[in-house]
Design a protein that fits this description.
globular; 216 residues; two-stranded antiparallel sheet; alpha/beta
Length: 216
Amino acid sequence: MTGASAKIFLLSPASASGLRARQLGAPGARFPAAERLRSGDGVSLEEAFSFMSALYFRGKAAYARRFAAPPPQLPGEGILIIAPGFGLVAPDWRLDRGRLRRMARTPVDTACKAYVSAMRRDLAGLRERLPASTQVVILGSIATGKYIDLLAPALGGRLLFPLAFVGAGNMQRGALLLRAARSGQELDYAVIDAPRRHPRAAAAAERASGARSSPD
């Protein structure tokens, strides 16, 4: 499902507790992203997650930037990133060591109050600002309810996911998204219209693929 409607993208997070996150937050790290993390201004979340997740997150960011068409009611690029414990934030949201530690101890799990409350707050605000015709594309896993059990009740039938994600691992998805962004050929989408009612065949295929599911 593609078209000329207004469209925004929600990007799932990289792991803030994995090896790459620990490298980013290491006190002695000398590469630019780590030095910016320790600075007074911090590092943009997009740059930090691109380092932590490498190809997959870079693909999500490039694809979203290529195809986002935000409505006037939503300032910015039409891209929001799920930041565990903080809700939905813009790509240039600043990450410092304190925020990184908070994200690391906030599991992407609907049993985690800190994750759920921040997401529900920001989703309620997003729903109020978006025209009913705006499409919202989740670039992340649909195999469990960790994202869509929160997104679908707030966004209803405007919530979409890329059909090409079904059966693909994270590295495959990243490469697919980068190719689409470079070619200008947008992927086809399917509707997710209610919590835990995302297409069963798609979710089953994603689980069967053995794709890494945490947290992307």
